[in-house]
From TrEMBL:
<feature type="region of interest" description="Disordered">
    <location>
        <begin position="1"/>
        <end position="24"/>
    </location>
</feature>
<dbReference type="GO" id="GO:0032580">
    <property type="term" value="C:Golgi cisterna membrane"/>
</dbReference>
<keyword id="KW-1133">Transmembrane helix</keyword>
<comment type="pathway">
    <text>Nucleotide-sugar biosynthesis; UDP-alpha-D-xylose biosynthesis; UDP-alpha-D-xylose from UDP-alpha-D-glucuronate: step 1/1.</text>
</comment>
<dbReference type="InterPro" id="IPR016040">
    <property type="entry name" value="NAD(P)-bd_dom"/>
</dbReference>
<dbReference type="InterPro" id="IPR044516">
    <property type="entry name" value="UXS-like"/>
</dbReference>
<keyword id="KW-0812">Transmembrane</keyword>
<comment type="function">
    <text>Catalyzes the NAD-dependent decarboxylation of UDP-glucuronic acid to UDP-xylose. Necessary for the biosynthesis of the core tetrasaccharide in glycosaminoglycan biosynthesis.</text>
</comment>
<dbReference type="GO" id="GO:0042732">
    <property type="term" value="P:D-xylose metabolic process"/>
</dbReference>
<keyword id="KW-0520">NAD</keyword>
<keyword id="KW-0472">Membrane</keyword>
<dbReference type="GO" id="GO:0033320">
    <property type="term" value="P:UDP-D-xylose biosynthetic process"/>
</dbReference>
<feature type="compositionally biased region" description="Polar residues">
    <location>
        <begin position="1"/>
        <end position="12"/>
    </location>
</feature>
<comment type="similarity">
    <text>Belongs to the NAD(P)-dependent epimerase/dehydratase family. UDP-glucuronic acid decarboxylase subfamily.</text>
</comment>
<dbReference type="InterPro" id="IPR036291">
    <property type="entry name" value="NAD(P)-bd_dom_sf"/>
</dbReference>
<dbReference type="GO" id="GO:0048040">
    <property type="term" value="F:UDP-glucuronate decarboxylase activity"/>
</dbReference>
<keyword id="KW-0333">Golgi apparatus</keyword>
Length: 438
């Protein structure tokens, strides 16, 4: 025991420590960022990088913007910035159409990469009812100019086939949703197109139609208020009812039957306009209102009850064209691309509206039938039927306000646009007949 006690009390020799906190005291006292640079020769690498970069720019003067600022005597001056943009726009008539499909940068000789459209940001836009034939053209136009687009549609009248060509596009999204129910999105602009627009569809479920006009518009206006988005309502010429003023100006308050079979649509749109203006005045929402007159074009529903689609479908199928009443009631027909141009001009402009968007060219139903016969089948016949309730006798827009404030007017006449619609209808009707085994 004594021996063990002696061993335990003997001094133990220690090997010298490799690390001493005292020896590193001067390093700890330095700022953390400076300590980082001093370790592992990082400062040397920084100086070497700066030196290599300086040598590169000295040996390659063509990439230096300063070297191109003063042209030599035998070199013409280059055009930059807005001047160059203006010259490209002037020389290329398809500049606006191709702008959305170009890359984010283009190369100008000797000046590296120059951003395109630097003054305009990419918008994130929602289009309700975007699977319809108007929505199709609008969505295509917005994506072509470089925006991100979300389509919200419940496919009551819209068709998913209209949007198949956009599936896989990173700037396109499709949400199956009924706007009668709220939805949460983060967008810059809202084009509110959702609502059945043909008598066949809105008379099928009139209560749902007016709910779409009222609750759907309320939900989208509430969304616009929460996120600070611009809101555009697509109203209709039906707010004028069976008008006592001809042509109709935006100041005309209309002549509408509030309890008729068409009032679910007529009064629904009038209420939607009221809600839109109340949100504008009371909540500061930035709004736009478009009153759309009769519109036609490819991808319309084949049997939606509207006069142009009815006549075209019947003439292709070798059926008599149905003329209701005496055929002397008038309508004005605009091609869908003209309408889309007007909607975009309205959204991008600074005026609330309402604005009439339509073609002031006026046709009776009998005159329209003759144009369809000339385009499709000169041997087509006409069948007269009793007129429907509350059918307006005259309908023609006064578009002087849109001309003055939006710099917009339709460009495509009925005889120019109708063949484009006929080709689409003929292909779809033939495919439909083949599917039935005819």
């Amino acid at each position: 025991m004594k021996q063990l006690h002696k061993q335990s009390t003997m001094p133990i020799s220690h090997t010298p420590k490799l690390y001493s906190p005292k020896s590193q005291k001067h390093i700890r006292s330095l700022p953390r960022s400076l300590t980082y640079l001093l370790r592992e020769q990082r400062l040397l690498f920084i100086f070497v990088g700066v030196l290599i970069g300086s040598i590169f720019f000295l040996l390659q003067p063509s990439v230096n913007p300063l070297s191109s600022a003063t042209p030599s005597a035998d070199q013409p001056p280059r055009i930059f910035s807005a001047n160059r943009e203006s010259s490209v726009r002037y020389q290329d008539p398809n500049y606006e159409h191709n702008l959305g499909t170009r890359n984010n940068y283009r190369y100008a000789s000797g000046v590296g990469r120059i951003p395109v459209g630097i003054g305009r940001k990419r918008n994130r836009i929602v289009v309700t009812g975007g699977a319809g034939f108007v929505g199709f053209d609008l969505v295509d136009k917005l994506i072509a100019r470089g925006d991100d687009v979300i389509v919200v549609d419940n496919f009551f009248t819209g068709r998913k086939d209209n949007l198949v060509h956009l599936f896989g596009n990173p700037r396109f999204e499709l949400i199956r949703h009924d706007v009668v129910e709220p939805i949460l999105l983060e967008v810059d602009q809202i084009y509110h197109l959702a609502c059945p627009a043909s008598p066949v569809h809105y008379k099928y479920n009139p209560v749902k139609t007016i709910k779409t006009n009222v609750m759907g518009t309320l939900n989208m206006l509430g969304l616009a208020k929460r996120i600070g988005a611009k809101f555009l309502l697509t109203s209709t010429s039906e707010v004028y009812g069976d008008p006592l003023e001809h042509p109709q100006k935006e100041t005309y308050w209309g002549h509408v039957n509030p309890i008729g079979v068409r009032s679910c649509y007529d009064e629904g749109k009038r209420t939607a306009e009221t809600l839109t203006m109340d949100y504008h005045r009371g909540a500061g929402v930035e709004v736009r209102i478009a009153r759309i007159f009769n519109t036609y074009g490819p991808r319309m529903c084949l049997d939606d009850g509207r006069v142009v689609s009815n006549f075209v479908s019947q003439a292709i199928r070798k059926q008599p064209m149905s003329v209701y009443g005496d055929g002397k009631q008038t309508r004005s027909f605009q091609y869908v691309s003209d309408l889309v141009d007007g909607l975009v001009a309205l959204m991008e402009g600074e005026h609330v509206g309402p604005f009439n968007l339509g073609n002031p060219g006026e046709f009776t139903m009998l005159e329209l039938a003759e144009v369809v016969k000339e385009t499709i089948d000169p041997s087509a016949t006409i069948e007269f039927k009793p007129n429907t309730d509350d059918d307006p006798h005259k309908r023609k827009p006064d578009i002087s306000k849109a001309k003055e404030l939006l710099n917009w007017e339709p460009k495509i006449s009925l005889r120019e646009g109708l063949p484009l619609m006929v080709n689409d209808f003929r292909n779809r009707i033939l495919n439909e007949d083949e599917g039935k085994g005819n």
